[in-house]
Amino acid sequence: MDTQEEIELSNEELILSFLTEGGDEFISGAALSDKLGLSRTAVWKHVESLRKLGYRIEAAPARGYRLVEVPDRLTALELAPLLATRDLGRVLHYEESLPSTNVRAFELANEGAFHGEVVVTEEQTAGKGRRGRVWVSPPGKNLYFSAILRPELPPQRAPELTLVAAVALCETLREAGAKASIKWPNDVQIDGKKVAGILTELSADTERVHFVILGVGINLNARPEDFPPELAEIATSVAISRGQPVPRALFAAALWTRLEQWLDLHADEGFAPVREAWKAMASTLGQDVLVRGEQREVRGVAEDLDDSGALLLRTPDGKLERVLAGDVEQVRARKG
Ligand code: BTN
Taking the domain 288-330, which CATH number applies? Predict the structure, then answer.
């Protein structure tokens, strides 16, 4: 059983949101007990239980309480006070460890979970990457989550959601000070090394999407020694690239806000604005590339993204090839 934590329920969560809102200011015990409709002693007891969970809360006579430090975990207690979303993450399924958040989210969606519910974990023991690969998921350092989405889309348009997520992810990473770019279709890179990946899984019939599981893994605070030797040269983390750790709950809350904004825009205006944003952040366009698909390999210059998210390649014989899926490898950089 996972812990399903709904946002409005606990007094601890409310105290944390008031203290978070207060920033560096002290909030008086009287103000907290008024806001919560609790006695001063009850407020003090909740503050004590938060301290036991690792929150550092300063108390000063006649001034009140001030939040000094938040533990680096991803439960609703840390996330709820930071969330500015309507749906995304408002119901949170948190586990210390899971084989894969995508697998758990798929089960929950089959059992009727609602749009926006999110599964998040500290580590994955069988994290899934694209094309049957493993997503290395060490404990307590990175962000691994899966969002359950129930979009009004025909199944053939579901792959657009992966590009929606790539745009939101790249923007959030840039906001966090990382020089991130997107490699088609949905790898996010810093300095040419992979920092994040997206795995979408679909349940649909011929007419409509039942649900989409949007799984995202981001190397936030992994150190070089956390990567197995075969990834050492090709993977990185935000902390490695910017030289300081990332507060994971803050990053998750910022990402979910952007993701919801982009999902809303996509629902209202279709793929066109996503395509433009994707193109502006993509490193693949203009490069001479080799795309390895399941069935075939195509080489050419990546010219454009079409209006369904496919990559358009100009092959050496001058034809324009449309590629729907595969891994991109740069053959050589083009000038100009
Ligand atoms: C890729 O290969 O680029 C996709 C990686 C996706 C990894 C994430 S981590 C959270 C979610 N759960 C999984 O098992 N995989 C995705």
Answer: 2.30.30.100
* Ligand 1 site, residue 102, Cβ cutoff 6 A: yes
CA distance 309 to 299: 18
Q: Closest Cα to atom 16, ligand 1: which residue?
A: 215
List, for residues 236-286, the tens digit of each pLDDT value. 999 999 898 999 999 999 999 999 999 999 999 999 999 999 999 998 888
Return the domain boundaries, the chain: 11-69, 76-281, 288-330
Amino acid at 132: G
Please report where in the chains the tokens 């923007």 appear, as a residue. Answer: 171
Q: Which CATH architecture has domain 76-281?
A: 2-Layer Sandwich (3.30)
- Top CATH class of 11-69 equals mainly alpha
Pocket flag, ligand 1, residue 300 (CB < 6 Å): no
CB 144 less than 6 A from any atom of ligand 1: yes
Q: What is the mean pLDDT of residues 159-177?
A: 95
Res 124 pLDDT > 90: yes
